[in-house]
Design goal:
Blueprint lengths: L18 H27 L7
Length: 52
């Protein structure tokens, strides 16, 4: 069935690439959120340490 690409669900155009792309994207987003949270926490905890 060459029309398999037509049946793109909520995943959109990237849905045809499989769940691997979704897993990698989710992992990158999670790492980015954690990194940002830690950075903001340290900046608020010791604002003067950033200037040193």
């Amino acid at each position: 069935m060459p029309e398999e690409q037509v049946e793109e669900g909520p995943g959109g155009p990237a849905g045809g690439r499989g769940p691997l792309v979704i897993t990698i994207t989710a992992a990158l987003v999670t790492v980015a959120v954690i990194f940002a949270a830690v950075t903001l926490f340290q900046a608020v905890k010791e604002p003067e340490d950033e200037r040193t």
